[in-house]
Amino acid sequence: MKFYIGVWNAKLAQYAPFFIMSYRQLRKVTKFNVSKQWIMDSGAFQELYINGKYTYDINDYLASVKKFNPTIFVNMDYMCEPFMLKKINSTVRKNQLLTIDNHIKIKDRLDKENIKSKFMGVIQGWELNDYLQHIDDYKSYGLIEEYMGIGSVCRRTKLDNIVNIIRVVKKELPNVKLHGFGIKLQVFKLYPQTIKMLYSSDSSAWSYNGRKYPLKEFNNLRCKISNKPCIYPRNKNCANCYLYMLHWYEKIVNIIKENEKYDLCRYT
């Protein structure tokens, strides 16, 4: 399973082996040339949560896809968490249909715009049956892509619910490269079967950990990772330090490697 670490500026991106970056950050950037694999996210969660709607349209988004040429870019989808539905006064079904609508509009533009990046659709829902319904929608329109993301999972507190959703989607789409958005580290630790089911996943949790558990010894400003003087001596913590980011990424990769040896048949 590939793991894409969440970044928000070009400096962090240059150190990340694989990374995901939001269009909300990229639209502030003038130059961004990278030769590694990366995903451009539409920034949907922040857009809807902060603004209640997208403040940019498909034209803006696709212009940036062409400009920055990510390996993969994600549909402008609509999340289905209960707090999000309340925030934007919507329903699961309405957000599913809005997601499908944007998928169709973007898909129709790919050849016309000569976009070479791979397009990732997003399966949305809250209950298991919601995800099945949305998969049926995609199938009926012939919109199942090579890459399909599983949405509205990163803020769930019950880990077994996340695993069940991944399992159901994998069963319905066995040959699709599935991406899990913001899958918690504990899921990979406690349910190693998810590593076999997913083609890729991502997380920006390293930054939160860097704020909460800084590795810098403040009394002498020495980095606990490198044992050298801190490269960001004015920072209060390690939330923006690429050394801490790589330290966290290495832990994730080790967990993935350790658990990839498990036999998927034991869990399905």
Q: Could you characterize the architecture of this molecule?
A:
With 268 residues, this protein is of the alpha/beta class. It has one domain (2-212, 241-266): TIM Barrel, CATH 3.20.20. The protein is 44% helix and 15% strand. It has an eight-stranded parallel beta barrel with strand order 1-2-3-4-5-6-7-8, surrounded by four helices. A two-stranded antiparallel sheet has the order 9-10. Helix 6 runs parallel beside helix 7 (128-141) and helix 7 (128-141) runs parallel beside helix 8 (159-172). The model has no long low-confidence stretch (mean pLDDT 92).
Largest sheet: 8 strands, parallel, barrel
- Please give the radius of gyration in angstroms: 19 Å
Overall domain count: 1
Please identify the top-level CATH class: Alpha Beta
The topology string of helices and strands comes to: EHEHEHHEHHEHEHEHHEHEEH
Based on Cα principal axes, name the global outline. Answer: globular
End-to-end distance, in Å?
18 Å
- Main sheet: which strands, in order across? 1-2-3-4-5-6-7-8
Mean model confidence by pLDDT: 92
Full CATH superfamily name: Queuine tRNA-ribosyltransferase-like
> What is the count of DSSP helices, taking H or I runs of 4+ residues?
12
